[in-house]
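Per your request, structure below.
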């Protein structure tokens, strides 16, 4: 008994010494990150998908992936997690970022790690948190990233090809044959809904999360408009990306698709989802993206992301409308985001416009050729 008491006493002394050492050295980077994540979720109200991305970047080494058997490398926490904030220097952060360079990570990935450190440290500089004096990450170099890829999207005739392939069940494999007539009919309705969803996405420019949250009470076919004021993010329903509601005009093609969906036998009450599963619940976004890619391949088209439907809507409308109108149509908070759509692809009348601009030069050139 005396040995047990003595051993407990020694352990208690060790714990107290460790706690005293932690107090002496101050809070660690791990503690800062934990508080920062709570702040983002409860006070800042960031989208669940954004919070999930941050949580992935600051995961502990060996933490299991949400899906599959993989494990997180936990590079950031392995390098800085146990380090006291007061002892972390700009050089130490720079060395960590350079280790990512040396490991072959893309400049965008390196910059994302730097951005996370900067954002968490800025939170730690507040008087109501850690009152840190300065941000050492801000004194490190940001990597130069390659320019964004040229936007590629489906033209309207290609959208219809994908929709027809969906209606034909093009994404399905021959090994998943239905076992009953009820299942055959259920799959037919699922495929029909997918086809109309692709059309609505392509002709309204709604984000996937906005489509999944759309209810029939948000659809006003009489006045040809949609009310977009909520979206799903990482399976959680909340406000739109810009935190603003907007009215989206509905073209003939989108109205026809929505009208056909409204004729189904169930799930057409005001509170029902426009696009739903067999139980009336919202669709799974990840599965829908995979089905879309398989359907595009079955249609014999190049395989693009689901978001390419939104790119197409913005780019095609930008050929006919001014940038401010396109910004409101797509729900962009910044006009700089909209500007990317202005020259995504050549307009059909670009050559004619250039010929009109260079009319005199063209005439001389043609005369010289004929001479």
């Amino acid at each position: 008994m005396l040995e047990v008491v003595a051993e407990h006493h020694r352990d208690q002394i060790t714990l107290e010494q460790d706690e005293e050492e932690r107090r002496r050295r101050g809070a660690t980077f791990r503690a800062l990150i934990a508080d920062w994540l709570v702040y983002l979720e409860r006070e800042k109200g960031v989208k669940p998908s954004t919070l999930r991305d941050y949580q992935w970047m600051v995961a502990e080494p060996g933490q299991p992936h949400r899906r599959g058997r993989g494990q997180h490398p936990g590079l950031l926490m392995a390098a800085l997690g146990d380090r006291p904030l007061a002892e972390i220097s700009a050089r130490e952060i720079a060395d960590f970022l350079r280790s990512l360079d040396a490991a072959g990570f893309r400049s965008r990935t390196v910059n994302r790690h730097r951005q996370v450190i900067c954002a968490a440290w800025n939170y730690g500089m507040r008087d109501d948190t850690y009152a840190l004096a300065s941000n050492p990450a801000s004194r490190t170099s940001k990597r130069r990233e390659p320019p964004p890829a040229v936007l590629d999207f489906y033209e309207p005739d290609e959208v219809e090809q994908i929709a027809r392939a969906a209606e034909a069940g093009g994404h399905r494999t021959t090994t998943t044959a239905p076992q009953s007539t009820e299942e055959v009919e259920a799959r037919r309705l699922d495929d029909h809904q997918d086809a109309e969803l692709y059309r609505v996405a392509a002709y309204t420019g709604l984000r996937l999360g906005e489509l999944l949250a759309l209810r029939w009470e948000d659809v006003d076919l009489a006045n040809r408009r949609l009310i977009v004021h909520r979206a799903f993010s990482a399976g959680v329903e909340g406000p739109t990306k810009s935190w603003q509601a907007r009215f989206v005009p509905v073209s003939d093609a989108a109205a026809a698709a929505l009208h056909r969906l409204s004729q189904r036998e169930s799930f057409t009450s005001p509170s029902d989802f426009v696009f739903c599963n067999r139980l009336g619940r919202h669709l799974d976004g990840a599965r829908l993206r995979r089905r879309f890619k398989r359907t595009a391949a079955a249609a014999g088209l190049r395989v693009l992301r689901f978001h390419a439907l939104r790119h197409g809507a913005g780019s095609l409308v930008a050929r006919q409308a001014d940038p401010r109108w396109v910004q409101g149509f797509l729900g962009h908070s910044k006009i700089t985001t909209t500007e990317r759509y202005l020259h995504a692809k050549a307009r059909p009348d670009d050559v004619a416009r250039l010929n009109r601009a260079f009319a005199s030069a063209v005439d001389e050139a043609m005369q010289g050729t004929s001479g």
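The two ends are 115 Å apart (CA to CA).

Regards,
D.
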